[in-house]
Inverse folding.
């Protein structure tokens, strides 16, 4: 399993720890990944994802998983999240067509 957020695409970064004497030591900066179960309102089911704590706050800020995925770019999402986004858009499209009729 890669160390990558399934919703935002944030991954491991590489950099230096710099001492007072300006010596540089190579270091890996790992994302704060959390295994969470989020509820999709439109699909009426739970989804298990591995996301960063920052992404979890963003999901709550946007109003839930469905709202986050509708606004998210396809490039940042994992394969599992892309499939979920398509299911949600399909479900939301059906409900809007039923409301219009």
């Amino acid at each position: 399993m890669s160390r990558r957020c399934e919703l935002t695409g944030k991954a491991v970064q590489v950099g230096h720890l710099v001492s007072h004497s300006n010596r540089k030591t190579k270091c890996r900066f790992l994302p704060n990944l959390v295994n969470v179960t989020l509820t999709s309102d439109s699909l009426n089911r739970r989804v298990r994802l591995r996301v960063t704590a920052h992404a979890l706050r963003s999901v709550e800020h946007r109003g839930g998983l469905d709202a986050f995925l509708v606004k998210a770019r396809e490039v940042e999402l994992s394969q599992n999240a892309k499939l979920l986004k398509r299911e949600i858009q399909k479900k939301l499209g059906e409900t809007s067509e039923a409301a219009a009729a």
User: Anything to note?
Assistant: The first strand starts at residue 13 and ends at 18. The radius of gyration is 18 Å. Strands lie at 13-18, 24-29, 33-40, 45-52.
